[in-house]
Amino acid sequence: IRYLTSGESHGQTLIAIVEGMPSNLKINIDNINNELNKRQKGYGRGKRMEIEKDKVNILSGVRGNITIGSPIAIEIKNKDFENWKNYMDPIGDIEVESRKVTKARPGHADLVGAFKYDFEDIRNVLERSSARETAIRVAVGALCKEFLSIFDIKFTSHVICIGEDEVENTYKFEDIIENVDKSEVRCVDEFYEERFIENIRKAKENGDSLGGIFEVRIKNVPIGIGSYVHYDKKLDSNLALELMSIQGIKGIEFGLGFKLGKLSGSKVQDEIYYSQSRGIYRQTNNLGGIEGGMSTGEEIVVRCVMKPIPTLYTPLNSVDINTLENYKASIERSDNCAVPAASVVAENVCAFVIAKFMMHKFGSDNISDIISNYKNYLERLKSR
Ligand code: EPS
């Protein structure tokens, strides 16, 4: 399975073509729209989210809610395009000057993008580099979640740090999935939830922005997805690629992550046990459910750090890319903090990777072959 996306932040529409989805999968479009809705939320989001009501439109590859194995084309229309038609229309005369951006925002793709692609107008860069593109990636991931639900593979995510505060407790998968959607900052710890909101509020008051850390958890991935045999077959390397590609992500860790560097081996490795009722199991999950690039059958635990959003309402020093004069950076409408939204994006890009590896292992033509291959595999493992 693979996909491509296309679309500008204030263009007509965001598009993806998903190739390789098996036939005879029943799609519930409400589930996909629910993920899109979750991505739009979060304390700290800007005014754009008041304009958009993201909904997916499936254009091909599905008949009467059932996939037919052909490429699936999906789109999310940008409502805001109505306000941008004069500046963004692909064909015909457009007005460029009044929406021209020339003072690069430090931390954004603006400066290097404009030099690399030879633009006098940074708008050509920011329209595509904007995190608006994550909406369509969520739709792709949500489609993959439909496939994965057959195997009861579940995802959740929560925010554990915004600004200087970080959640200390660890939470169970069930606690997170049941409570996280009730929180404006996707934090299940009530004490830190308030702190995060306060941190964002203060940053906003100062014309500043904040980043943070979130955690994605994936449950019921069978043992042996991914492989140790080659660098591009490793489950963790593929997850890292997808997660790093989310706008603003600067670091990733699995399990105990960077803490592993300070611990000795005896404190780190997840000891192996067997009982008749549970089969082979671990009592700890310090490595986050992946060993040697393969799923261990334990929960997959991955955390990402997102940098603060580069658009600052109290802008930093920059230059005009055309005159090279010193200026304060341009201000584009933006969010003050998008870490809660990024956690939803991350869940869904992980769903794409897990779906890809499930298909590598069990096939990808049609659902019934995949299910029998899956069952045979589990039987074989049980009979050891
Ligand atoms: C986003 C839509 C954008 C930004 C944000 C993400 O809308 P607009 O630019 O019209 O306000 O709010 O993008 C950025 C933060 C960025 O730096 O590009 C969305 O749909 O998520």
From TrEMBL:
Q: Which Gene3D superfamilies match?
A: Chorismate synthase AroC (3.60.150.10)
Alphabetically list the UniProt keywords.
Amino-acid biosynthesis, Aromatic amino acid biosynthesis, FAD, Flavoprotein, FMN, Lyase, NADP
Which class of enzymes does this protein belong to?
lyase
SUPFAM superfamilies, sorted: Chorismate synthase, AroC
| Cofactor descriptive note | Reduced FMN (FMNH(2)).
Identify the residues that bind FMN: 128-130, 247-248, 292, 307-311, 333
Q: Which reaction does it catalyse?
A: 5-O-(1-carboxyvinyl)-3-phosphoshikimate = chorismate + phosphate
Q: Which GO terms describe its cellular component?
A: cytosol
State the EC number(s): 4.2.3.5
Q: Name one GO biological process term.
A: chorismate biosynthetic process
What Gene Ontology terms describe what this protein does at the molecular function level? Answer: chorismate synthase activity; FMN binding
Q: What is the protein named?
A: Chorismate synthase
Alphabetized NCBIfam families for the sequence = aroC, PRK05382.1
Give the record's family classification: Belongs to the chorismate synthase family.
Quaternary structure note? Homotetramer.
List, alphabetically, the PROSITE patterns matched.
Answer: CHORISMATE_SYNTHASE_1, CHORISMATE_SYNTHASE_2
Q: What does this protein do?
A: This reaction introduces a second double bond into the aromatic ring system.
The gene name reads: aroC
